[in-house]
Specification:
Strand content: 25-35%
Oligomer: single chain
Number of domains: 1
Helix content: 25-40%
Number of helices: 5
Shape: elongated
Order of helices and strands: EEHHHEHHEE
Structural class: alpha+beta
Number of strands: 5
Distance between the termini: 41 Å
Radius of gyration: 18 Å
Strand order of the largest sheet: 1-2-3
Length: 120
């Protein structure tokens, strides 16, 4: 089983010298990563910061940088943040739960994704 994945950011991290860093590595998340992220004081004061903290735990390398921190993730372009969020979901197999349903007219069985969020 593969646990570390290479990536190339679409835009790249721009360091203090103006150099662009695009290649990096992301590892699979653990339950501990997600639990500790929810306890982070920055997340407790601003729940939308959860993504930043989790990505800073699982992005293990960006070429040319000594470490990847929450500040590193904060400074990414939004296209790169979206790219990493999508990658995180794909490699950790986060799929919405589904329910088996049967069509009352034809009897065909199909799956319907469950959405637990409230809209409107």
């Amino acid at each position: 089983m593969e646990t570390v994945y290479d990536f190339t950011l679409p835009k790249g991290y721009v360091d203090g010298n103006g150099e662009i860093h695009q290649r990096g590595k992301m590892r699979l998340a653990t339950a501990g990563d997600e639990i500790s992220a929810t306890r982070d004081p920055r997340v407790l004061s601003n729940p939308s910061y959860l993504t930043i903290v989790i990505l800073s735990k699982v992005v293990t390398q960006i070429e040319g940088l000594d470490a990847v921190t929450a500040t590193t993730i904060e400074r990414l372009f939004t296209a790169d943040l979206a790219f990493l969020q999508d990658m995180y979901q794909r490699i950790n197999d986060i799929e919405p739960p589904v329910m088996q349903c049967v069509c009352p007219d034809c009897g065909k069985t199909f799956e319907v994704p469950l959405n637990f969020t409230r809209e409107g």
